[in-house]
Design goal:
There is one protein chain. By secondary structure, the chain is of the alpha/beta class. The chain has one domain: Alkaline Phosphatase, subunit A (3-Layer(aba) Sandwich), CATH 3.40.720.10. The chain is about 25% helix and about 20% strand.
Length: about 450
Protein backbone atom coordinates (compact mmCIF):
# COMPACT_ATOMS: atom_id res chain seq x y z
CA UNK A 1 0.00 0.00 0.00
CA UNK A 2 1.17 3.51 -0.85
CA UNK A 3 0.21 6.02 1.80
CA UNK A 4 -0.30 9.52 0.44
CA UNK A 5 1.90 11.88 2.38
CA UNK A 6 4.86 9.54 1.95
CA UNK A 7 7.09 9.54 -1.13
CA UNK A 8 4.94 9.54 -4.27
CA UNK A 9 7.55 9.92 -7.00
CA UNK A 10 6.35 6.77 -8.75
CA UNK A 11 2.85 8.10 -9.30
CA UNK A 12 2.04 9.47 -12.72
CA UNK A 13 1.78 13.24 -12.59
CA UNK A 14 -1.07 13.29 -15.11
CA UNK A 15 -4.09 11.32 -13.95
CA UNK A 16 -6.08 11.47 -17.15
CA UNK A 17 -5.86 12.28 -20.82
CA UNK A 18 -7.33 15.58 -21.93
CA UNK A 19 -8.66 14.10 -25.18
CA UNK A 20 -10.39 11.08 -23.64
CA UNK A 21 -13.14 11.86 -21.15
CA UNK A 22 -14.24 8.90 -19.03
CA UNK A 23 -17.57 7.38 -18.21
CA UNK A 24 -18.49 8.05 -14.58
CA UNK A 25 -20.30 5.63 -12.28
CA UNK A 26 -21.18 7.29 -8.98
CA UNK A 27 -22.45 4.83 -6.36
CA UNK A 28 -24.06 6.28 -3.25
CA UNK A 29 -25.17 4.24 -0.25
CA UNK A 30 -27.63 5.37 2.39
CA UNK A 31 -26.41 5.64 6.02
CA UNK A 32 -23.33 3.47 5.52
CA UNK A 33 -20.85 4.11 8.28
CA UNK A 34 -17.14 4.88 8.06
CA UNK A 35 -16.10 1.38 9.17
CA UNK A 36 -18.83 -0.81 7.68
CA UNK A 37 -16.58 -2.28 4.97
CA UNK A 38 -13.86 -4.89 5.28
CA UNK A 39 -11.36 -2.57 3.58
CA UNK A 40 -12.04 -0.04 6.36
CA UNK A 41 -11.40 -2.59 9.07
CA UNK A 42 -14.77 -4.27 9.56
CA UNK A 43 -14.11 -7.81 10.81
CA UNK A 44 -17.56 -9.23 10.18
CA UNK A 45 -19.18 -7.92 6.98
CA UNK A 46 -17.97 -9.47 3.74
CA UNK A 47 -17.44 -6.90 0.95
CA UNK A 48 -14.99 -8.45 -1.52
CA UNK A 49 -16.11 -6.41 -4.55
CA UNK A 50 -15.88 -3.04 -2.81
CA UNK A 51 -12.56 -4.12 -1.31
CA UNK A 52 -11.35 -4.87 -4.84
CA UNK A 53 -12.29 -1.33 -5.91
CA UNK A 54 -10.15 -0.01 -3.07
CA UNK A 55 -7.29 -2.33 -3.95
CA UNK A 56 -7.41 -1.20 -7.57
CA UNK A 57 -7.71 2.50 -6.78
CA UNK A 58 -7.63 4.98 -3.93
CA UNK A 59 -9.31 4.72 -0.53
CA UNK A 60 -9.90 7.90 1.47
CA UNK A 61 -9.79 7.84 5.27
CA UNK A 62 -11.05 11.40 5.79
CA UNK A 63 -13.83 11.88 3.26
CA UNK A 64 -16.82 13.89 4.42
CA UNK A 65 -20.51 14.24 3.65
CA UNK A 66 -21.59 17.87 3.53
CA UNK A 67 -24.34 17.17 6.07
CA UNK A 68 -25.07 14.50 8.70
CA UNK A 69 -28.38 13.62 7.03
CA UNK A 70 -29.40 12.47 3.59
CA UNK A 71 -31.07 15.08 1.36
CA UNK A 72 -28.61 17.94 1.93
CA UNK A 73 -25.63 15.74 1.06
CA UNK A 74 -27.35 14.53 -2.10
CA UNK A 75 -27.98 18.14 -3.07
CA UNK A 76 -24.30 18.94 -2.49
CA UNK A 77 -23.27 16.10 -4.81
CA UNK A 78 -25.66 17.25 -7.53
CA UNK A 79 -24.67 20.96 -7.35
CA UNK A 80 -21.23 21.27 -5.76
CA UNK A 81 -22.77 23.69 -3.25
CA UNK A 82 -23.03 23.58 0.52
CA UNK A 83 -26.52 22.74 1.80
CA UNK A 84 -26.53 26.03 3.71
CA UNK A 85 -26.15 27.97 0.45
CA UNK A 86 -29.02 25.96 -1.05
CA UNK A 87 -31.03 26.36 2.18
CA UNK A 88 -31.73 22.64 1.92
CA UNK A 89 -30.40 21.73 5.36
CA UNK A 90 -32.50 18.80 6.53
CA UNK A 91 -33.74 15.52 5.11
CA UNK A 92 -36.93 15.87 3.11
CA UNK A 93 -39.89 15.74 5.54
CA UNK A 94 -37.65 16.47 8.53
CA UNK A 95 -39.66 18.54 11.01
CA UNK A 96 -38.65 17.53 14.53
CA UNK A 97 -38.74 20.18 17.27
CA UNK A 98 -38.02 20.19 21.00
CA UNK A 99 -40.37 22.18 23.24
CA UNK A 100 -37.67 22.26 25.93
CA UNK A 101 -35.12 23.92 23.65
CA UNK A 102 -34.58 27.71 23.51
CA UNK A 103 -34.68 27.52 19.71
CA UNK A 104 -36.84 26.25 16.89
CA UNK A 105 -35.30 24.84 13.69
CA UNK A 106 -34.24 27.26 10.98
CA UNK A 107 -36.47 27.92 8.01
CA UNK A 108 -35.39 25.78 5.08
CA UNK A 109 -36.39 24.56 1.63
CA UNK A 110 -37.45 20.88 1.57
CA UNK A 111 -36.45 20.46 -2.08
CA UNK A 112 -33.67 21.21 -4.55
CA UNK A 113 -34.80 24.17 -6.62
CA UNK A 114 -35.28 23.60 -10.34
CA UNK A 115 -33.06 26.56 -11.13
CA UNK A 116 -30.02 24.78 -9.65
CA UNK A 117 -27.76 23.28 -12.30
CA UNK A 118 -26.90 19.65 -11.59
CA UNK A 119 -23.88 17.62 -12.61
CA UNK A 120 -26.23 15.59 -14.80
CA UNK A 121 -27.26 18.72 -16.74
CA UNK A 122 -23.63 19.73 -17.21
CA UNK A 123 -22.59 16.29 -18.45
CA UNK A 124 -25.65 15.95 -20.67
CA UNK A 125 -24.74 19.22 -22.35
CA UNK A 126 -21.25 17.78 -22.82
CA UNK A 127 -22.77 14.86 -24.76
CA UNK A 128 -23.07 12.29 -21.98
CA UNK A 129 -25.92 9.84 -21.62
CA UNK A 130 -27.13 10.35 -18.04
CA UNK A 131 -28.85 7.85 -15.78
CA UNK A 132 -30.26 8.05 -12.26
CA UNK A 133 -31.23 4.88 -10.38
CA UNK A 134 -32.52 4.65 -6.82
CA UNK A 135 -33.18 7.19 -4.10
CA UNK A 136 -33.64 10.81 -5.22
CA UNK A 137 -34.86 12.44 -1.99
CA UNK A 138 -34.59 16.00 -3.31
CA UNK A 139 -38.26 16.83 -3.69
CA UNK A 140 -41.26 15.15 -5.25
CA UNK A 141 -42.81 17.72 -7.60
CA UNK A 142 -42.59 16.73 -11.25
CA UNK A 143 -40.60 19.85 -12.17
CA UNK A 144 -37.80 18.90 -9.77
CA UNK A 145 -37.83 15.15 -10.35
CA UNK A 146 -34.63 13.68 -11.83
CA UNK A 147 -36.10 13.44 -15.36
CA UNK A 148 -36.29 17.25 -15.27
CA UNK A 149 -32.89 17.68 -13.61
CA UNK A 150 -30.70 16.39 -16.42
CA UNK A 151 -31.24 12.64 -16.42
CA UNK A 152 -32.13 10.80 -19.65
CA UNK A 153 -32.81 7.50 -17.88
CA UNK A 154 -34.54 7.50 -14.49
CA UNK A 155 -35.52 4.63 -12.22
CA UNK A 156 -36.52 6.43 -9.04
CA UNK A 157 -37.73 4.74 -5.87
CA UNK A 158 -41.35 5.72 -5.33
CA UNK A 159 -43.75 4.36 -2.74
CA UNK A 160 -42.65 2.48 0.38
CA UNK A 161 -39.00 3.37 0.00
CA UNK A 162 -38.13 1.78 3.36
CA UNK A 163 -39.68 -1.57 2.45
CA UNK A 164 -37.24 -3.75 0.55
CA UNK A 165 -39.90 -6.16 -0.69
CA UNK A 166 -42.95 -3.94 -1.22
CA UNK A 167 -42.06 -0.78 -3.12
CA UNK A 168 -42.50 1.01 -6.43
CA UNK A 169 -40.14 2.46 -9.02
CA UNK A 170 -41.00 5.38 -11.31
CA UNK A 171 -39.66 4.85 -14.83
CA UNK A 172 -38.84 8.24 -16.39
CA UNK A 173 -42.11 9.78 -15.15
CA UNK A 174 -44.84 9.51 -12.53
CA UNK A 175 -47.11 7.97 -15.16
CA UNK A 176 -45.03 4.80 -15.56
CA UNK A 177 -44.62 2.83 -12.35
CA UNK A 178 -43.21 -0.60 -11.53
CA UNK A 179 -44.81 -2.05 -8.39
CA UNK A 180 -43.22 -4.90 -6.48
CA UNK A 181 -45.28 -7.11 -4.19
CA UNK A 182 -42.69 -9.17 -2.42
CA UNK A 183 -40.85 -10.77 -5.33
CA UNK A 184 -37.69 -8.74 -6.05
CA UNK A 185 -35.30 -7.48 -3.38
CA UNK A 186 -34.97 -3.72 -3.80
CA UNK A 187 -31.15 -3.58 -3.74
CA UNK A 188 -30.97 -6.24 -6.45
CA UNK A 189 -33.64 -4.48 -8.51
CA UNK A 190 -31.68 -1.22 -8.44
CA UNK A 191 -28.58 -3.08 -9.60
CA UNK A 192 -30.63 -4.56 -12.47
CA UNK A 193 -31.53 -1.05 -13.60
CA UNK A 194 -27.92 0.11 -13.30
CA UNK A 195 -26.76 -2.76 -15.51
CA UNK A 196 -29.56 -2.04 -17.97
CA UNK A 197 -28.45 1.59 -18.28
CA UNK A 198 -24.83 0.63 -18.93
CA UNK A 199 -25.85 -1.90 -21.57
CA UNK A 200 -28.11 0.66 -23.31
CA UNK A 201 -25.44 3.34 -23.57
CA UNK A 202 -24.37 2.04 -27.01
CA UNK A 203 -20.76 3.22 -26.95
CA UNK A 204 -21.82 6.73 -25.90
CA UNK A 205 -20.12 8.30 -22.87
CA UNK A 206 -22.32 7.93 -19.82
CA UNK A 207 -22.82 9.12 -16.26
CA UNK A 208 -24.62 6.74 -13.92
CA UNK A 209 -25.79 7.97 -10.51
CA UNK A 210 -26.69 4.76 -8.66
CA UNK A 211 -28.16 5.68 -5.28
CA UNK A 212 -28.92 2.59 -3.23
CA UNK A 213 -31.48 2.91 -0.43
CA UNK A 214 -29.57 0.35 1.62
CA UNK A 215 -28.43 -0.05 4.31
CA UNK A 216 -30.96 2.51 5.63
CA UNK A 217 -33.45 1.23 8.17
CA UNK A 218 -35.77 -0.68 8.14
CA UNK A 219 -33.14 -3.46 8.31
CA UNK A 220 -34.52 -6.08 5.92
CA UNK A 221 -31.89 -8.39 4.39
CA UNK A 222 -32.19 -11.22 1.94
CA UNK A 223 -32.83 -14.35 4.05
CA UNK A 224 -30.30 -16.43 2.12
CA UNK A 225 -27.46 -14.20 3.32
CA UNK A 226 -28.16 -14.42 7.02
CA UNK A 227 -26.92 -17.81 8.20
CA UNK A 228 -23.19 -17.13 7.96
CA UNK A 229 -23.61 -13.89 9.90
CA UNK A 230 -25.62 -15.67 12.57
CA UNK A 231 -22.71 -18.09 12.94
CA UNK A 232 -20.23 -15.21 13.18
CA UNK A 233 -22.44 -13.50 15.74
CA UNK A 234 -22.46 -16.51 18.04
CA UNK A 235 -18.67 -16.68 17.93
CA UNK A 236 -17.80 -12.96 17.97
CA UNK A 237 -16.24 -11.23 20.96
CA UNK A 238 -17.64 -7.94 19.66
CA UNK A 239 -21.36 -7.90 18.96
CA UNK A 240 -22.67 -6.59 15.63
CA UNK A 241 -25.96 -6.59 13.73
CA UNK A 242 -25.97 -9.64 11.40
CA UNK A 243 -29.04 -8.36 9.55
CA UNK A 244 -27.20 -5.14 8.73
CA UNK A 245 -24.13 -7.03 7.54
CA UNK A 246 -26.30 -9.07 5.19
CA UNK A 247 -27.76 -5.84 3.73
CA UNK A 248 -24.30 -4.41 3.13
CA UNK A 249 -23.25 -7.64 1.42
CA UNK A 250 -26.14 -7.26 -1.03
CA UNK A 251 -24.78 -3.83 -1.96
CA UNK A 252 -21.39 -5.46 -2.49
CA UNK A 253 -22.99 -8.03 -4.79
CA UNK A 254 -24.43 -5.15 -6.78
CA UNK A 255 -21.04 -3.49 -7.11
CA UNK A 256 -19.66 -6.76 -8.44
CA UNK A 257 -22.39 -6.91 -11.08
CA UNK A 258 -21.83 -3.29 -12.12
CA UNK A 259 -18.11 -3.97 -12.43
CA UNK A 260 -18.78 -7.07 -14.56
CA UNK A 261 -21.17 -5.12 -16.80
CA UNK A 262 -18.55 -2.44 -17.42
CA UNK A 263 -16.03 -5.14 -18.28
CA UNK A 264 -18.43 -7.03 -20.55
CA UNK A 265 -19.28 -3.82 -22.43
CA UNK A 266 -15.58 -3.10 -22.91
CA UNK A 267 -15.69 0.24 -21.11
CA UNK A 268 -14.10 -0.58 -17.76
CA UNK A 269 -10.73 0.98 -18.55
CA UNK A 270 -12.38 4.26 -19.47
CA UNK A 271 -14.69 4.46 -16.46
CA UNK A 272 -14.17 6.31 -13.20
CA UNK A 273 -16.00 4.51 -10.40
CA UNK A 274 -16.79 6.41 -7.20
CA UNK A 275 -18.23 4.76 -4.10
CA UNK A 276 -19.35 6.65 -0.98
CA UNK A 277 -22.17 7.26 1.53
CA UNK A 278 -24.55 10.17 2.14
CA UNK A 279 -23.79 10.47 5.87
CA UNK A 280 -22.40 8.50 8.79
CA UNK A 281 -23.79 5.23 10.06
CA UNK A 282 -26.78 4.97 12.39
CA UNK A 283 -25.50 4.18 15.87
CA UNK A 284 -28.66 3.99 17.96
CA UNK A 285 -32.01 2.20 17.94
CA UNK A 286 -34.32 3.66 15.28
CA UNK A 287 -37.04 1.53 13.70
CA UNK A 288 -35.36 -1.51 15.21
CA UNK A 289 -32.08 -2.56 16.81
CA UNK A 290 -28.94 -0.45 16.35
CA UNK A 291 -27.55 -1.12 12.86
CA UNK A 292 -23.86 -0.30 13.27
CA UNK A 293 -21.09 1.38 15.26
CA UNK A 294 -18.78 4.19 14.15
CA UNK A 295 -16.30 3.84 17.01
CA UNK A 296 -13.79 5.31 17.61
CA UNK A 297 -15.61 8.20 15.93
CA UNK A 298 -17.97 10.23 18.10
CA UNK A 299 -21.73 9.92 17.57
CA UNK A 300 -23.52 8.94 14.35
CA UNK A 301 -25.96 10.08 11.68
CA UNK A 302 -27.70 13.34 12.59
CA UNK A 303 -24.70 14.84 14.44
CA UNK A 304 -21.94 17.13 13.19
CA UNK A 305 -19.35 15.13 15.13
CA UNK A 306 -17.16 12.81 13.06
CA UNK A 307 -19.45 9.80 13.32
CA UNK A 308 -22.20 11.71 11.54
CA UNK A 309 -20.19 13.19 8.68
CA UNK A 310 -17.09 11.08 7.99
CA UNK A 311 -17.88 8.48 5.33
CA UNK A 312 -16.20 5.77 3.27
CA UNK A 313 -15.02 6.96 -0.16
CA UNK A 314 -13.27 4.92 -2.84
CA UNK A 315 -12.34 5.83 -6.41
CA UNK A 316 -11.12 3.45 -9.07
CA UNK A 317 -10.05 4.17 -12.67
CA UNK A 318 -7.95 1.52 -14.32
CA UNK A 319 -4.75 2.84 -15.82
CA UNK A 320 -5.31 6.34 -14.44
CA UNK A 321 -5.47 5.97 -10.65
CA UNK A 322 -2.53 4.01 -9.27
CA UNK A 323 -3.71 0.86 -7.43
CA UNK A 324 -3.42 0.49 -3.69
CA UNK A 325 -3.33 4.14 -2.67
CA UNK A 326 -4.63 5.33 0.69
CA UNK A 327 -5.19 9.04 1.20
CA UNK A 328 -5.62 10.75 4.55
CA UNK A 329 -6.32 14.11 2.90
CA UNK A 330 -9.77 15.47 3.65
CA UNK A 331 -12.42 16.59 1.17
CA UNK A 332 -16.19 17.07 1.03
CA UNK A 333 -19.08 15.88 -1.11
CA UNK A 334 -19.26 19.42 -2.55
CA UNK A 335 -16.01 18.58 -4.37
CA UNK A 336 -17.40 15.91 -6.68
CA UNK A 337 -19.01 18.25 -9.22
CA UNK A 338 -15.92 20.41 -9.85
CA UNK A 339 -13.77 17.27 -9.98
CA UNK A 340 -15.99 15.67 -12.61
CA UNK A 341 -16.05 18.94 -14.55
CA UNK A 342 -12.26 19.07 -14.67
CA UNK A 343 -11.96 15.41 -15.66
CA UNK A 344 -14.47 15.80 -18.50
CA UNK A 345 -13.22 19.16 -19.74
CA UNK A 346 -16.19 21.27 -18.65
CA UNK A 347 -14.79 24.78 -18.35
CA UNK A 348 -17.89 26.70 -17.34
CA UNK A 349 -19.37 25.64 -14.02
CA UNK A 350 -22.29 27.31 -12.19
CA UNK A 351 -21.81 30.38 -10.03
CA UNK A 352 -21.26 30.00 -6.30
CA UNK A 353 -20.01 26.43 -6.45
CA UNK A 354 -18.32 25.79 -3.11
CA UNK A 355 -16.32 22.69 -3.96
CA UNK A 356 -12.90 22.40 -5.57
CA UNK A 357 -11.49 19.78 -7.89
CA UNK A 358 -9.66 17.04 -6.02
CA UNK A 359 -8.19 15.62 -9.20
CA UNK A 360 -4.63 16.15 -7.88
CA UNK A 361 -5.38 13.69 -5.07
CA UNK A 362 -6.17 10.99 -7.62
CA UNK A 363 -2.70 11.32 -9.09
CA UNK A 364 -0.95 11.26 -5.75
CA UNK A 365 -0.67 14.97 -4.99
CA UNK A 366 -1.32 15.44 -1.27
CA UNK A 367 -1.46 19.22 -1.36
CA UNK A 368 -5.17 19.69 -2.08
CA UNK A 369 -7.22 18.79 0.98
CA UNK A 370 -5.75 20.62 3.96
CA UNK A 371 -5.33 23.98 2.26
CA UNK A 372 -8.89 25.18 2.90
CA UNK A 373 -11.60 24.88 5.56
CA UNK A 374 -14.67 22.65 5.34
CA UNK A 375 -18.00 23.66 6.87
CA UNK A 376 -21.15 22.03 8.21
CA UNK A 377 -24.46 23.65 9.12
CA UNK A 378 -27.27 21.63 10.67
CA UNK A 379 -29.79 24.00 12.33
CA UNK A 380 -32.26 21.21 13.13
CA UNK A 381 -33.18 18.45 15.56
CA UNK A 382 -32.42 15.11 13.97
CA UNK A 383 -34.35 11.89 14.46
CA UNK A 384 -31.09 10.49 15.85
CA UNK A 385 -30.88 12.91 18.83
CA UNK A 386 -28.69 15.45 17.05
CA UNK A 387 -29.09 19.08 18.13
CA UNK A 388 -28.80 22.30 16.07
CA UNK A 389 -25.09 22.87 15.49
CA UNK A 390 -22.40 23.96 13.09
CA UNK A 391 -18.79 22.95 12.55
CA UNK A 392 -15.64 23.90 10.67
CA UNK A 393 -12.50 21.92 10.00
CA UNK A 394 -9.25 23.58 8.96
CA UNK A 395 -6.15 21.42 8.91
CA UNK A 396 -6.15 19.08 11.90
CA UNK A 397 -8.43 21.27 14.02
CA UNK A 398 -12.20 21.17 14.14
CA UNK A 399 -14.57 23.53 15.92
CA UNK A 400 -18.15 22.59 16.86
CA UNK A 401 -20.70 25.23 17.86
CA UNK A 402 -23.99 24.51 19.60
CA UNK A 403 -26.73 26.73 18.21
CA UNK A 404 -28.75 26.34 21.42
CA UNK A 405 -26.19 27.34 24.03
CA UNK A 406 -23.40 28.96 21.99
CA UNK A 407 -20.94 26.49 23.46
CA UNK A 408 -17.76 26.01 21.43
CA UNK A 409 -15.66 22.85 21.35
CA UNK A 410 -12.24 22.51 19.72
CA UNK A 411 -10.64 19.22 18.76
CA UNK A 412 -7.31 18.13 17.31
CA UNK A 413 -8.43 15.33 14.98
CA UNK A 414 -4.89 14.16 14.30
CA UNK A 415 -4.40 13.31 17.97
CA UNK A 416 -8.01 12.82 19.00
CA UNK A 417 -10.12 11.16 16.33
CA UNK A 418 -12.85 10.45 18.89
CA UNK A 419 -13.32 14.15 19.73
CA UNK A 420 -13.06 13.39 23.42
CA UNK A 421 -10.74 16.22 24.55
CA UNK A 422 -12.14 19.75 24.20
CA UNK A 423 -9.23 22.17 23.70
CA UNK A 424 -11.26 25.38 23.47
CA UNK A 425 -10.14 26.67 26.88
CA UNK A 426 -6.48 25.76 26.36
CA UNK A 427 -6.27 27.05 22.78
CA UNK A 428 -8.34 30.22 22.86
CA UNK A 429 -6.64 31.83 19.87
CA UNK A 430 -7.25 28.81 17.65
CA UNK A 431 -10.85 28.64 18.89
CA UNK A 432 -11.40 32.30 18.02
CA UNK A 433 -9.77 31.82 14.61
CA UNK A 434 -12.04 28.92 13.62
CA UNK A 435 -15.14 30.54 15.11
CA UNK A 436 -14.49 33.62 12.98
CA UNK A 437 -14.15 31.41 9.90
CA UNK A 438 -17.43 29.68 10.68
CA UNK A 439 -19.43 32.86 11.34
CA UNK A 440 -18.06 34.62 8.25
CA UNK A 441 -18.86 31.58 6.11
CA UNK A 442 -22.43 31.48 7.39
CA UNK A 443 -22.84 35.13 6.46
CA UNK A 444 -21.33 34.55 3.02
CA UNK A 445 -23.70 31.68 2.13
CA UNK A 446 -26.73 33.29 3.82
CA UNK A 447 -27.14 30.33 6.17
CA UNK A 448 -30.53 30.25 7.89
CA UNK A 449 -30.19 30.04 11.66
CA UNK A 450 -32.53 28.62 14.32
CA UNK A 451 -35.11 31.06 15.65
CA UNK A 452 -36.14 31.72 19.26
CA UNK A 453 -38.71 29.34 20.71
CA UNK A 454 -41.55 31.52 22.08
CA UNK A 455 -42.76 28.68 24.30
CA UNK A 456 -39.40 28.13 25.95
CA UNK A 457 -39.39 28.83 29.70
Amino acid sequence: MLLIGQTVTTINQQCYSQDKSPNIVFILTDDMGWKDLACYGNRFTETPNIDALAKNGIRFTQAYAACPVSSPTRASIMTGKYPARLQLTNFIAGNRTDKDSPVLPANWKPYLEAREITIAELLKEKGYNTGMVGKWHLGGHDTIAPWHQGFDFTRMIGKNGLDYYNYSIYLDSYQNEFIDKGTEYLTDKLTDYGVEFIERSNEKLFFLYLAYSAPHVVIVPRPDKLMKYFRKYSQADEKFNPYYSAMVESIDDGIGRIFKSLKDEGVLENTLIVFTSDNGGLGLDELGPTPTSNLPLRKWKGHVYEGGIRVPAIMSWQGKIKPGMISDEYFSSVDYLPTFCEITGIDQIPNNVDGISILPLLSGDSRTGGERPLFWHYPHFSNQLGRPAGAVRFGDYKLVESYESGRLELFDLKKDISESADLSKKMKRKTEELFKLLTEWRKNVNAQMPVPNPEFK
